[in-house]
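Morning F.,

Quick status update on the modeling queue. The single chain you submitted on Monday has been processed. Sequence for confirmation:
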Amino acid sequence: PAFKADVGYSPAELLYGAPLSLLWQILTPVDLSLQDPALYLNRLRSYFQDLPPMSTRDQTVKPAAPRNVASWTDVFVRNDAARCSLTTPYAGPSRVLAHTNKHFTSDHNDCRDTVSVDRMKITYTDADTPATHTPSTHISPHTHIYPLHIWLHKQLPHLYHDTLRQLPLARKTL
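Structure tokens below.
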């Protein structure tokens, strides 16, 4: 560090109250030509043999689940598959038939399904009105759901292009 002659201290001494030590000043060089490779290898092997084994993860941890999971009678089930836009992420409601700590067996569209609690949400109903179990609308995998502009293009191509020409941004690209 540069010494300031007019002040009598270096900037580090003024700032920290002590001179800075550089890394090469702290470490002492080791002469590798004096070390025997066989001796070094023996020391390294004995070091790794004396290392204790890693402790295993505690297997007694119970899975996390909501506290009132035993009282759930109706649930929504999350669909983790890739979805089209504007589709609901949850299917249901489904009636709960049986459950364990982490899994539920539910009746959805007359089909029994065992699902993890992580994919479920409780269904809240109004206490005054009885819950109705209507099957959710199921979309066939062969049914195509298009965004509006694609549907317009397929059904009314002349109207679609006329509408696009009226938009200021579309004029530049057409």
